[in-house]
Amino acid sequence: MPTPSMEDYIEQIYLLIENKGYARVSDIADALSVHPSSVTKMVQKLDKDEYLVYEKYRGLVLTQKGKKIGKRLVDRHDLLEQFLKIIGVKEENIYQDVEGIEHHLSWNSIDRIGDLVQFFEEDPKRSEDLKQLQLKNEAE
Ligand SMILES: [Mn+2]
Predict the structure, then answer these.
(1) CA of 14: how far to CAs of 4, 53, 105, 140, in Å?
(2) Its principal location (predicted)?
(3) 81 and 59, same structural domain?
């Protein structure tokens, strides 16, 4: 299993490739606010662990294993954003909060949060009820 830091890199590399078609060391460094030399180091580790292949001219290419975990990490991030949104967390807190919690939940918890998101999506009345409860709590 990748460490939290490896997960951040795989997630960003997956997103960059999805959005731009390629992931350069400088783009990864910008996305994660780290020094390019840290990226180079991590890329070497991810290559060694077979998440990606670093080719001199083609740049970074995710392996099947890297793509599979990359997609899972991006989906997990999106699900947690949806979850925080549904429970009424302020827009301005959502991204940073997800970055803070995403690496520390079991896949069991992620799946159950997925159920909860589905539960709210299936009937808008449920979100309305939650909103009413929150307004009541705020008023107290
Ligand atoms: Mn993330």
Answers:
(1) 15, 13, 20, 45
(2) cytoplasm
(3) no
